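--- STAGE predict ---
source: upstream dedup step, 1 unique chain passed
mode: sequence only
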Amino acid sequence: MLQKAPLEKILFLDIETVPQYYQFSELPNEAKQLYEAKTKFLQKENSVEEVYERAGIYAEFGKIICISVGYIHEGVLGRQIRMKSFYHEDEETLLKQFVRLLEDNPRFNILCGHNAKEFDFPFICRRLLINGLRIPDVLDLAGKKPWEISHLDTMELWKFGDFKAYTSLALLCYVFNIPTPKDDISGADVARVYYEDKDLERIKDYCEKDVIALIQLFLKMRNEPIIKNPVNH
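--- STAGE serialize ---
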């Protein structure tokens, strides 16, 4: 499917998430008990307060603060990456904007991310439902047969059937010699930058760079050259 996938129909994406509350102590009492129960398996060597830094990866306790998308545009100047980001303090607002993009651009009927089948896609769907929003057809898996699901995942593609290990986007960019900008933040810093620095713009820039890296990796996996001077908003 990788070689046959039509590039003009693929929308590449990445999301950034944070805990709904910055500190465990800020959670309502019932939510504290529920988080403690959900993460019991992590509390053998760490307290519930210490494992709360993982809250942003759980759709029940986290929220999306940015969705960045990109696609490959074939023009007279060759290939370029076109980008769009949805980022907002209010999660419902950015989700509505993202859904509108999908509905207004039905040609993007294939979604691609890195570890997206395990994280990005289900996280978006869960947060859509929690916010009372409809899941767009391209994300909705209900009733679909496996061959009807048009989702691509570069981490899954790299496994070649080996399900034992997680391989990061950064590591694959390194082994494929894909140039990536050196950032002053990592995924572990996103919650701090959001809650303490209140710098959504910085998080958006970080998210967009991951989408660019994802697209370049996808091209490498197809044995195609990466895109030079790729960004075009």
